[in-house]
Amino acid sequence: MDMVMEPRLVFPTTAWRLDNNREISSDEMRVAIKRIHIEGTSFRQICQESNDNDDAIRQKITDIIIRRGKLHNPVTDTGGLLYGIVEEIGKDYKSDKNLKVGDEVICNTSLASIPIYISKITTIDRAYNQVDAEGYAIIYKPIPIVRKTQGLPVDLLLYTLNESGTLYSVSKAAEVQKNFLVVGNNLMLNLLFGHTIRKAAGPDAHIVNVIDKMTNTIIQSSKVDQLVKMTFNETHFVNILRPMEGIKSLKAEGFFDVTVNCADIPGAETLNILATREGGTVFFTNLINNYNIALYITETIARQLDIKCADGYLEKYDEFDLEIVKELAPYFEGATIEKRREKTDTFRTAMAPGGESLLVEDFISVSHAMALVMEEIMGVAKYDCNVLISGDTGVGKEKVANIIQKNSSRKMQPFVKINCASIPANLMESEFFGYEPGSFTGANTAGKKGYFEVADNGIVFLDEVGELPPEMQAKLLRVIQDGEFFRVGGTRPVKTNVRIISATNRDLEEFIENKTFRRDLYYRLNVFPVKVPSLSERREDIPPLVDHFVQKYGKKFGMTRGIDENAVEYLAHREWKGNIRELENVVQRLLINAKGENIAIIDVMRELHGQIFDKPLVDLPEQMNGEIERGLELEAMVHDFEKQIIRQACEKYGSTRKVAAAIGISQTQLVRKKKKYGIQ
User: Fold this and answer.
1) What are 159-211's pLDDT values in tens digits?
2) Which CATH number among 1.50.40.10, 3.20.20.70, 1.10.8.60, 2.60.120.620 corresponds to the domain 539-677?
3) What does DSSP assign to residue 257?
4) Residues 598, 600, 606, CA angle at the centre, nearest 5°?
5) pTM, entire model
6) How far separated are the first and last CA of the chain, in Å rounded?
């Protein structure tokens, strides 16, 4: 589609950036935005990242739209809905709603899919995860549009339509079942689904309401209290991230015909699965939950369940939702939101299974890919099992290990880090397990404790574990299996109790096939795998990482130098084969070598590409002095310099593969730039 700017030839929903230009095509419609509903997980993450400050929340929402041309939160990978007034309709735009300019409408598709522009955000409505805003949206077919029904509150309309078909699907299931469980961290959403179930199932149905006891807010009024009593037979407050505890308090193992998970918290899947009877149905109302985990749990408990994820839009869903809003609106009118307790950030400070907040110091990420890694860390940090972290060189595997250690039950115990590649093979056994006095020439007369003895009751981090020689693999396997080892020269076993976190940038399964790594050791280390994506898989993390390194090393070097936006953008599109470590080193050099007050794109290009030429590049400021005097704009000079680089690199290296590798871009990017500059 023409609106997709980056990357080209992908669907708008998956695109990183859309064209939100105000002008519409003949088959499009422009809607003046009045109110935006932000998906619950996204709204909570934005509020927490902003320390619940109104101005910061406004800025964060605006920044997402400026960067992406749509409201598509890169952390949660979710959007929202909008309400507005039809402003202009293209002559070829067709709709069965017979729309005209001035009509009040709700765009019933995710804002991750359509171009929008926001000029101003006024009111922030925390009860409904919504904001009043000024701006516009570009609507194209076949995006579903719902006419606003007069007399119905916009806030509740948006809130309900956001659940779209899931409400309808739950209603159909409730027509033939009798025992229901609704689990969530928002009473309003639980009431929405509870009321839908009660309406379909009738007065004889048994409906249990479970609210996470860590929930941030509770909606309150006498009418809401009345609705709760009319809807639910029981209400319980439990820690939904402690499912065994929740099941025990409910006395509900394998009891319910239908369970609905409304909780937008990663890790909330288990309670619903355990509570559902053989052959029952589990509904997940949002996409933040891990469906793979849900399936694994069903296998573990050997129970056949029908697991359904959030339904999207189908014809007639809106009519069903509008009817629900009519019925519920009187109960929510005038209700207030009671602040219960602050809830920690699922992604940055993360909620651990025990209800404590995860310590995630100096962790810089906004990408969905790393949010998933953080979710995995949330699940494993508190459990005393071995973890194998894999990923390319420089992606931050040690950082992940640090996070796990700081949030483990052994966090107050020793944390011993071992680089397996840096220890000579002939010294490895004595370094790992220590030695007895006089066991070899030059040995300490008092003997020495090894890493595993020092780390007793704590954690050992084996970095580059794939470099262990075969004989050490066998000895390490025994330590894991038996919990004991022998010092070099010793005859008495030494007991040890350690948790092992390993890391590797190698393909250990390939090593196993080549007989260079033991299969049995691999399975002992790989109890819980964590794969850290490369920077090329999470490019949205590059700008905040650059800003972080500029501040970090600016302070270290005693500099006040910043970095221009264009320079950051250029860095974000480069292929970083050395990942974060390479990026960090480049930023340090840029701070030292930059010519002006801020790091400019010229500085970046000189740093990254100056070395590809047979002779040094001429000093750019002098070279372009004449152009500057003639009033040539910076962008034009940059384009001219880039063209020069690509032409010289092509002359030097020939093939597109070699040229792309030399200047640090992909072959696809190179081909596109050669075409742009007319380079053969």
Assistant:
1) 888 887 788 889 989 999 999 999 988 888 999 999 999 999 999 999 999 98
2) 1.10.8.60
3) E
4) 130
5) 0.51
6) 29
